[in-house]
């Protein structure tokens, strides 16, 4: 879908991917050339250099299942996530979209805050798309950090500066995506990967989208006011989602609007409900979240301006805007897993 097209029905679990200046190629021969051009931009991995276990499925992508794998690269084995696509079985229109999503990864994968595309491998029946395998998702890391740090008298295992650095990493990745005219539409902590070195990397868009085998994520709680009203998409909707993501980070993985069930949360957001300010998040920092949740998209900041606001906070040795110091009566904001997935 190109900008300027008519609004399409909103699907909150599987948002439509939007790409500027990348119209579908109508002619079959042109499409083959398009694929050939894409192949010249990335590593075409020989099949004997990839070791995958088809029975070890870790999730589902847009066009096939993801398995763990290893790739022989520069004389060593590199861990990878492999989406196994039976591309010969795809309908013509599906294949066109798949190729565009592959193009998205090629355009974006060189940034350190975006999950990397290692390469592709063609067999007689399948296309293997190999992505960088990261340590965990940001959501999982936050929830695992919900433990008391007695030594430092903190209520979690990550520091305030680390939380702010994660927000910076995500903003850097999103700033780069937007510079390439790519929008995400699934921005939340579950779609941010954490590398072995602790760097946050934007994932979950295009062919990097992966969901659990037996559940479908519901992104209503991260969706902007105007998109819930099914208006034409504005890239500033991503800023709204980013504000909710920051709140997720500050609350160590809490569920936004945990007091509202899925069937009622959209209407409440439209009527003005917003995530509340935790007592340990300072006014200056929470004000950034509130700016992201402006009803008028044009009033929301850009990722560049958010980075400028976050930089001095993240680089200072300590911050008065965020404190994870434990105090009497502290309770985590609730994490309600069933509110983050689609309900029958």
Overview of this protein structure:
- This protein has nine helices and eight strands.
- The chain is an alpha+beta fold.
- It folds into two domains: 89 residues, 2-Layer Sandwich (Phosphorylase Kinase, domain 1), CATH 3.30.200; 204 residues, Transferase(Phosphotransferase) domain 1 (Transferase(Phosphotransferase), domain 1, Orthogonal Bundle).
- The strands form two sheets. The protein has a five-stranded antiparallel β-sheet with strand order 1-2-3-5-4, with no helix packed on it.
- The chain is globular and about 60 Å long.
- The N terminus is likely disordered.
- GO terms for molecular function: ATP binding; transmembrane receptor protein tyrosine kinase activity.
- InterPro entries: Kinase-like_dom_sf, Prot_kinase_dom, RTK, Ser-Thr/Tyr_kinase_cat_dom.
- It comes from Danaus plexippus plexippus.
- This is Protein kinase domain-containing protein.
Give the tally of structural domains: 2
If strands are numbered along the chain, what order do they take across the biggest sheet? 1-2-3-5-4
Instruction: Give the CA-CA distance, first to last residue.
Output: 28 Å
Sum up the overall morphology in one term.
globular
Number of strands: 8
The name of the CATH topology of the largest domain is Transferase(Phosphotransferase), domain 1
CATH class of the largest domain: Mainly Alpha
Multimeric state: single chain
CATH superfamily of the largest domain: Transferase(Phosphotransferase) domain 1
| Helicity range | 25-40%
Uncertain spans, ≥5 residues at pLDDT below 50? Answer: 1-32
Mean of pLDDT: 87
Order of helices and strands: HEEEHEEEHHEEHHHHH
Q: How would you characterize the largest beta sheet?
A: 5 strands, antiparallel
Structural class: alpha+beta
Q: Kindly provide the radius of gyration, computed on alpha-carbon positions and rounded to a whole number of angstroms.
A: 21 Å
Q: Compute the number of helices.
A: 9
CATH architecture descriptor text of the largest domain: Orthogonal Bundle
Protein name: Protein kinase domain-containing protein
Domain Protein kinase: 52-314
Pfam families: PK_Tyr_Ser-Thr
InterPro entries: Kinase-like_dom_sf, Prot_kinase_dom, RTK, Ser-Thr/Tyr_kinase_cat_dom
